[in-house]
Specification:
185 residues; Rossmann fold; five-stranded parallel β-sheet; four-stranded mixed β-sheet; 7 helices; 43% helix; 24% strand; binds guanosine-5'-monophosphate
Length: 185
């Protein structure tokens, strides 16, 4: 099984791109992560995330149940479960939507079997505008996300491919093209 890792700063369009990729590339399965963050309206346990309490997450860390995990935002943990990757093991490839450090860890662990894709906004200014327009984050949250985005952008060069999300349709096609090339090889 190959691993495709998609990473992007919050607001860079990653969720939309991931959804479109999953619709188009038949051989791909989605890796559902575990998290301690509260469930948002409409999200389903086992589909969007495995929503765990802090205690449950900690006991999984102790049991060595994670391939990787990170404290992505202060006090909020996210991780890829070994069990989840094993569940998809019979498939051609799995898509992971995880943060920069998680992505680089997966690459380190799985090497050539992994394709890391970084979706970046055209600029920090555009990212800020998009976060404001989205209207789902408070000014404090936007500031936290922008700070994290600056850190994430500084790691873009460590990824196999960088996709600039200037035009969404084009970014989707580019992402699909990279994945198809990698799956053929
Ligand atoms: P959100 O709370 O908006 O769903 O996700 C926040 C961030 O956590 C996103 O950047 C997402 O890529 C990252 N994330 C989700 N699942 C995982 C995971 O299993 N491991 C790591 N390292 N990051 C994750």
């Amino acid at each position: 099984m190959k691993l495709i890792v998609l990473t992007a700063p919050s607001g860079a369009g990653k969720t939309t791109i991931a959804r479109r990729v999953m619709e188009v590339v038949d051989e791909l399965r989605f890796s559902t992560s575990a998290t301690t963050r509260p469930r948002r309206e409409g999200e389903k346990h086992g589909i969007d995330y495995f929503f765990l309490s802090n205690e449950e997450f900690t006991s999984k860390i102790d049991a060595d149940a994670f391939v990787e995990y990170e404290e992505v935002y202060p006090g909020l943990f996210y991780g890829t479960l070994k069990e989840e990757l094993e569940r998809h093991a019979g498939n051609k490839a799995v898509l992971l939507d995880i943060d920069v450090l998680g992505a680089l860890n997966v690459k380190r662990l799985y090497g050539e079997r992994t394709l890391t894709l970084f979706v970046r906004p055209p600029s920090m200014e555009v990212l800020e505008e998009r976060l404001i327009e989205r209207g789902s984050d408070s000014p404090e949250n936007i500031a936290i996300r922008l700070k994290k985005a600056a850190f994430e952008l500084s790691h873009a060069e460590d990824f196999d491919e960088i996709i600039v999300n200037d035009d969404l349709e084009q970014a989707v096609s580019e992402t699909i093209a990279h994945i198809r090339t990698f799956l053929i090889g």
